[in-house]
């Protein structure tokens, strides 16, 4: 046993700790207002939060227009961006919808939601319609539990219950300054192909269990 964690690991900052759980799909949150129209926000602070009813948890800063619009409507859409939407992912995390209509500026095509008054992004890998069932505040954020009303994926985007590599989902790796002098950070993303996906059935590790536990999986 080592005397200190740094004997076994390199220590990193709290901010860099997010790299340990990437690549991930960063959501484009779509919200809407009858007066203002639709808005986009890049969101990393979301997670699956339950099955019955099926729901997601989304954290939204009180500083954002998205917070204002969700408070007004009680609805939002989680859109999974495709590889070609890296510009939307970048801009939507940098510029406020109070200053520019991001959907119009990015020339993004939309279609109306079925059970929410929030548009879906046509070029996204998929869209999830959510209605707010509960929320709570902590520090400067509101955490919304969004019940899934409907979910959609691009045509041919599913391989059984798995997302197909043909869906071209944007697997986000994070951002960092490049070697050249730039105004913004570089955004890095992974190109997931069929060849990069490996299958693990789990039988070997189950066979390593004590007999009384292994019987639960052998039946």
UniProtKB/TrEMBL annotation:
<feature type="domain" description="Flavin reductase like">
    <location>
        <begin position="20"/>
        <end position="161"/>
    </location>
</feature>
<protein>
    <submittedName>
        <fullName>Flavin reductase domain protein FMN-binding</fullName>
    </submittedName>
</protein>
<comment type="similarity">
    <text>Belongs to the flavoredoxin family.</text>
</comment>
<dbReference type="Pfam" id="PF01613">
    <property type="entry name" value="Flavin_Reduct"/>
</dbReference>
<dbReference type="InterPro" id="IPR052174">
    <property type="entry name" value="Flavoredoxin"/>
</dbReference>
<keyword id="KW-0285">Flavoprotein</keyword>
<dbReference type="InterPro" id="IPR012349">
    <property type="entry name" value="Split_barrel_FMN-bd"/>
</dbReference>
<dbReference type="GO" id="GO:0010181">
    <property type="term" value="F:FMN binding"/>
</dbReference>
<dbReference type="InterPro" id="IPR002563">
    <property type="entry name" value="Flavin_Rdtase-like_dom"/>
</dbReference>
């Amino acid at each position: 046993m080592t005397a200190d964690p740094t004997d076994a690991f390199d220590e990193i900052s709290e901010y860099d700790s997010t790299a340990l759980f990437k690549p991930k799909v960063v959501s484009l949150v779509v919200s809407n207002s009858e007066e203002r129209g639709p808005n986009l926000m890049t969101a990393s602070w979301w997670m699956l939060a339950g099955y019955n009813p099926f729901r997601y948890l989304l954290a939204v800063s009180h500083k954002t227009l998205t917070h204002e619009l969700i408070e007004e409507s009680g609805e939002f859409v989680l859109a999974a961006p495709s590889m070609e939407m890296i510009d939307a992912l970048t801009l939507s995390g940098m510029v406020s919808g109070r200053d520019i209509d991001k959907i119009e500026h990015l020339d993004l095509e939309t279609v109306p939601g079925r059970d929410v008054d929030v548009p879906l992004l046509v070029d996204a890998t998929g869209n999830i319609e959510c209605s707010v069932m509960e929320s709570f505040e902590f520090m400067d954020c509101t955490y919304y539990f969004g019940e899934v009303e409907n979910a959609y994926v691009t045509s041919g985007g599913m391989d059984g219950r798995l997302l197909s590599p043909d869906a071209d989902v944007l697997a986000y790796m994070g951002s960092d300054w490049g070697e050249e002098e730039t105004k913004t950070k570089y955004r890095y993303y992974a190109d997931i192909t069929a060849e990069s996906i490996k299958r693990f059935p789990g039988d070997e590790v189950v066979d390593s269990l004590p007999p009384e536990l292994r019987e639960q999986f052998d039946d």
